[in-house]
Amino acid sequence: MTARDAGGFPVTRTPAGVVRSARSTPDLAVLDTRISGCYACPRLVAWREEVARVKRASFREEDYWGRPVPGLGPADARIAVVGLAPAAHGGNRTGRVFTGDRSGDWIFAALWRAGLANQPTSTHLGDGLELTDVRVAAAVRCAPPANAPTPEERDTCSPWLARELELLPRLRVVVVLGGFGWTALWPVLAAAGYALPRPRPVFGHGVEVALEGPRGPLTLLGSYHVSQQNTFTGRLTESMLDAVLSRATELAAPGG
């Protein structure tokens, strides 16, 4: 019988266990539950649970999720958006990726403008948000201290992302938010059988890389992350993000 935690999620406690659990996942719904029961990175587990216990003063009446945060979006998505990791008082609080923080305000508003979301805001579970033709996920599924996962934590978490992308049979474009996600994605794609260029393309906003793999062509698009240090300073503007997502929808369209 599979061990389960207090929330009823099947528990994974080691990097090897992540590999086994991810590889055997039959669909996105099961993947989401398995991700939610992951305890493979002790530092991240301690931090996410500490944040959920102490809470931010403005959210002290709320029950924090305090777990790994699964992806969001339909299995027939042609576009994937890959970020860094959940925010301590965003996804780690709400239980939904990019939901309830300033970064989420930016990405979901942009998805709405691109016709990929039914509303421009994402504040909490049950708020009515629905995505069309896009799946949003993170390279690391737990909120990290100082928003900085270690390379080891990135690698431990990578089988979850690898399997998530494999479970999107119509996937044609991956929009990568930030350099950390860009670096995290290459071994995932290599394991999936994509022929990768050498040397590896350097991350940058608007960088476009065309790949060929076992399921046909896949295009990577780079975008500066929707973090406040980029959006508040003007390094990333709405028009810059809109241009990347417009290119993504163009490439993902049938015959694109």
Task: Give an overview of the whole structure.
The protein has 256 residues and is of the alpha/beta class. The protein has one domain (15-252): Uracil-DNA Glycosylase, subunit E. 37% of the residues lie in helices and 11% in strands. The protein has helices at residues 15-23, 28-36, 42-54, 91-94, 102-113, 151-166, 179-191, 228-231, 238-252; strands at 79-83, 134-138, 173-177, 208-213, 216-223. A 5-stranded mixed β-sheet has the order 2-1-3-5-4, sandwiched between helices. A hairpin with a 2-residue loop joins strand 4 and strand 5 (216-223). Helix 1 runs parallel beside helix 6, helix 5 (102-113) crosses helix 9 (238-252) and helix 6 (151-166) packs across helix 7. The longest helix is centred in the middle third of the chain and has 16 residues, at 151-166. The model has no long low-confidence stretch (mean pLDDT 95). Keywords: 4Fe-4S, DNA damage, DNA repair, Hydrolase, Iron, Iron-sulfur, Membrane, Metal-binding, Transmembrane, Transmembrane helix.
Reported for the largest beta sheet, the result is:
5 strands, mixed
What is the CATH topology assignment? Uracil-DNA Glycosylase, subunit E
Give the N-to-C terminal Cα separation.
47 Å
Query: How much of the polypeptide forms β-strand, as a percent range?
Result: 5-15%
CATH architecture: 3-Layer(aba) Sandwich
Pairing-aware structural class of the strands and helices? Answer: alpha/beta
Give helix % range: 25-40%
CATH superfamily: Uracil-DNA glycosylase-like domain
Shape: globular
Low-pLDDT stretches:
none
The total strand number stands at 5
- CA radius of gyration is 17 Å
Report strand order across the widest sheet: 2-1-3-5-4
- Which H/E pattern describes the elements? HHHEHHEHEHEEHH
What's the domain count? 1
Average pLDDT rating: 95
Number of helices: 9
CATH level 1 name: Alpha Beta
Keywords: 4Fe-4S, DNA damage, DNA repair, Hydrolase, Iron, Iron-sulfur, Membrane, Metal-binding, Transmembrane, Transmembrane helix
Pfam family, one: UDG
Protein name: Type-5 uracil-DNA glycosylase
InterPro entries: UDG_Type-4/5, UdgB-like, Uracil-DNA_glycosylase-like, Uracil-DNA_glycosylase-like_sf
